[in-house]
Amino acid sequence: MKKTTLFIILTAFLLFGCSTYQSSDNNTENDYLDFSKRDDQFEGGIKMIPIQTPKGEFKVWTKRIGNNPKIKVLLLHGGPGMTHELYSCFDGYFPAEGIEYIYYDQLGSYYSDQPEDQDLWAIDRFVDEVEQVRIALGLNEDNFYLFGQSWGGMLAMEYALKHQDKLKGLIISNMMSSLDEYEKYAKEVLGPQMPEEVFQEIMKIEDEEDFQNPRYEELLMEHHYQYHVLRKPLAEWPEAVLRTLKHLNPNVYVYMQGFSEFGITSGATLKGWDRSADLNEIEVPTLVIGAGHDTMDPTQMEWMSKEVKNGKYLFCPDGSHLSQYDDQKVFFQGLINFIKEVDKKTTN
To answer: Which value, to the nearest 10 degrees, does the dihedral of the CA atoms of residues 325, 326, 329, 331 take?
Structure first.
């Protein structure tokens, strides 16, 4: 009985709850929700997209929400090797604004194919994958906004540096442009905020590369994650976040990022990544999102917003690495305002 009642309420909300929505080209709410002319109607917006790689063809999972010919936001998740589930909260904000958005699990992530060949886990290949996804979804410079958070922010920067002519707008969320600077910030600023004996024990485990020691995860959970990854007690972390952690592909994550939470482990392929000197090549309208309690330095992210040619900075004072959850109102208000401002300027 309860499930039936809930279904009726949700249906009523979808049909009538956003009755004031009208997009810039006079599309109504019914147009936003109408799948009847789409080739993904059969599975409610889900499309498995074939991707050509040097190791053969694989498929990646995508799911489109809504219709808006002028605003289509492709979401690049973090990790590497996590999932689109980190962005479930976007459902609470984007539909009411008429913003079309696309969930997407990168190759190797839970809902997509998960080949084991490590040669596939390279930045250039991921950039090529995003470009193939863009083409398959019909995204172009008139509608394509690329949102990337954490590792997804790295990937978004790399994509923009190669294909910015295909973009309408770029969003770099909770990601610095230099991993060496990230490591320095983690060890010199965040680590010392812990009790001294705790940080010393963590560093000792890292120095000895004893990452399988259960004490390592225990200390991070208690003293790091709930202060700088998502600022809530672990018992209150959203189910979608716990689900994406459960679905993490460690083979991709460890190969590219390593085991450490205070930098990039020696030997990991992302070690030394730095695009700071190249940011001034990005001319497309760009929003950089930083947070007061992030694992990333908000001061450096503000600097990034000034290095790109057409940048804007959004600061989430109460947020951490997943500021879409712990400073949600500021995060979504700023993100939505940016998208609509860019749309208004390019439409007029």
So the answer is: -70
Residue 19 annotated to the active site? no
Q: Can you tell me the distance from the alpha carbon of 348 to that of 92, in angstroms, rounded to the nearest whole number?
A: 29
Determine which one of 23, 109, 112, 150 is catalytic.
Answer: 150
- Structure confidence by residue, pLDDT tens digits, 249-301: 999 999 999 988 888 888 899 999 999 999 999 999 999 999 999 999 999 99
Active site residue 112: no
**CATH 3.40.50.1820 holds for 16-178+271-347:** yes
12 pLDDT above the threshold of 50: no
CA 144, 150, 151, 154 torsion: positive or negative? Answer: positive
pLDDT tens-place string over residues 198-245? 999 999 999 998 988 999 999 999 999 999 999 999 999 999 999 999
3-class secondary structure for 118-173? HHHCCHHHHHHHHHHHHHHHCCCCCCEEEEEECHHHHHHHHHHHHHHHHCCEEEEE
Query: Which position among 321, 323, 326, 343 bears the catalytic label?
Result: 321
Q: Which residue of the set 128, 294, 297, 326 is catalytic?
A: 294
| Residue 167 · residue 144 · CB < 8 Å | yes
Domain boundaries, the chain: 16-178+271-347, 181-237
